[in-house]
Amino acid sequence: MTADQMLSALWRRKALVGAIAAAIFVLGAAIVMTRPSIYEASVVVRVEPQRPGEEMVQRTVSELIEQRLVTVRQELLARPVLQKAIEEMNLYPELVSEKGVEAAVEQMRKDLTVRVEGETAFELTYAGRDPQVVAQVANRLPAIFSEETLKIRQTQAARATDLFTEEMVAMGKAVSNWEGKISKFKVDHLGELPEQMEMNMRGLERISAQLQTKSEELRTAEARRSDLARARNAADSEAGRLEAAESGLSRTLTQAKTQWTPDHPEVKRMERELGDISTQRKDAEGRMFAERNERTRVSTLITNIQKDIVDLQKQAEAYQARLNNTPRWAQELAVMNRDYEIARTKYQSVVSRKVEAEIAQELEAKSAKSLFNVISPAGVPSSPARPDRMSGLLIAALVALALGVLTGTVLEMRDDSLRDGTEVRERITLPVLAVVPNMQGKTEKRILMPMAGSKNSVSSPTSLN
Known about the structure:
Elements: H1 3-12, H2 14-34, E1 39-47, H3 72-76, H4 79-89, H5 93-99, H6 101-111, E2 112-117, E3 121-128, H7 131-188, H8 197-259, H9 265-366, E4 372-376, H10 389-414, H11 421-427, E5 447-448, E6 458-459
Antiparallel strand pairs: 1-3, 1-4, 2-3, 5-6
Helix pairs in contact: 2-10, 4-6, 4-7, 5-6, 7-9, 8-9
Region (Disordered): 224-248
Subcellular location: Cell membrane
Transmembrane segments: 390-411
């Protein structure tokens, strides 16, 4: 169909096309005008970088707060945040009573739009029918998200602190066990430890010097005892000789007294000689007694020196045994000290990390209020964001007109009526001799005469409208 034919067809059916277009427009306008007004409120939140830096305090929460912007949409649309907002602000009461909280959460996800702005900010938009509620929800959701995020971060920091505390207790027990083992080992091998090796060597040297001294004393005492033994024999001979001489002289004096008077010169001489011999005998006996005591003393001294030498030899053997065992215990003690140092180093590291974890936990708590900053709070919208009624009416008018034109076109294409000579010539192969004009609705018979040479004639009643 050409454009002229289409326009003619639409004009012939202008009443039908107009009725259909009007009906569809009225239906579309009713739909547009009866749709509820939806208001939108937006809030812009900026995430402040954490301070102080990692070079000052080692963080226990590995994720930077700025990195959460990558998943901020998923976290804002998470069930805990939305459910808390629904319960706190009593949103979707009918939906909650009919289908439960899960359906209300799904509906709220549809009403929320989250868009990241730059590297440190995001925009949250909430749509609803009540402008006051829309603004309240838009302003409250970032606060709930901030509370949930900080709660998670503080839980992570507290968990890290508890983990370091448990590890510190375990490592402290390990260090105490190693200290107890080392202390018991040192007590069990006291005197044979590596740090006592120099003392043992000095002790051995001292004992050796004392042994040498005692050996010299022993040789001197033994020499003295030999001298005393020789002197004893001589003293015993002198005392015995003097005693025998005194005994003989006493008998002679007794015989002389029987012969002579006491004043006799011979008697006097013999008495003097007897007194001298008696004195000499007593002196010899005194010397012999002193020598006997000296021999006893020297013998006792020799015995004591020999005992001291035996004791010193035992001490020297003990010191030597300690020195011999020192390398063996040194190796075992070195292994124990190595394991102890490893455990102690780990313990000190865990203690240091625990202190840092506690500081980081305190900083997380203190910096909680400054991590999320609302730079553009949501205001109460004055006009609905959708639907756009003018655009809706325009679209309804265009759709109605299009459907009307489409209906007229389809009806025209399904109509087999012939309305002018051109259509007759196009659709009938027989030659057209004449065309009767429109007779204001009257029906006439039109006879198409064949051309010369045709055997048959065709009579075709045609209604011309």
